Amino acid sequence: MSTLPACPKCNSEYTYQDGLMLMCPECAHEWAADGSDEAAAVDAKVIKDSVGNTLEDGDTVTVIKDLKVKGSSLVVKVGTKVKGIRLCDGDHDIDCKIDGIGAMKLKSEFVRKV
Description:
The protein is mainly β. 5% of the residues lie in helices and 29% in strands. The chain has one helix at 38-43, and strands at 16-18, 21-23, 30-32, 61-63, 67-68, 75-76, 81-82, 86-87, 94-98, 102-106, 111-113. The protein is elongated and about 60 Å long. The N and C termini lie far apart (54 Å). The mean pLDDT is 88.
């Protein structure tokens, strides 16, 4: 029977140790064996806008470049304000709703925090 703690993310009992880290084979979560929050800092991805400001959920941003909307003839114009953004994983790391266009995803490199 293992004396290792259960996974803090999915509560799996099948954790194993790899060097200084503990790993979960079910959800692939990694955390430090000594209980420090080093792994939490690694998991938290910092998303920055075009000028280097850190973005957070709920921020208001401005589009800095005309962006064509894929699959339609619509264009998001320079200076369009987007309120209440949500950060997500992936290439397009901002999930938002733009007035007149609807829900879409944006890349953080094309916005500036207001």
